[in-house]
Amino acid sequence: MSASEKMKAKAEQLVGKTVRKTAHALGNKTTEAKGSALEARGKARELKERGKDELKP
Questions:
Q1: Which of 5, 9, 19, 31 could form a disulfide with 46 if both were Cys (CB 3.0 to 4.6 A apart)?
Q2: How many CB atoms lie within 10 A of CB 55?
């Protein structure tokens, strides 16, 4: 996994989790869902990069 892609994935996860928790505390369901989606996208990006590493010879 390239370092920049790894950082992007972790950053998306961190931002998504922060947005989700803040929105939950404020009772904003729409923003909470957007934070969850961003967090999931970060996790998916990380899994994709791990898969690419596994397929390299």
A1: 9
A2: 7
Per residue in 12-47, pLDDT (tens digit) is: 999 999 999 999 999 999 999 999 999 999 999 999
Amino acid at 53: D
DSSP 27: T
CA distance 14 to 20: 10
Q: Is the pLDDT of residue 1 over 60?
A: no
φ, ψ at 56 (rounded to 5°): -70, 140
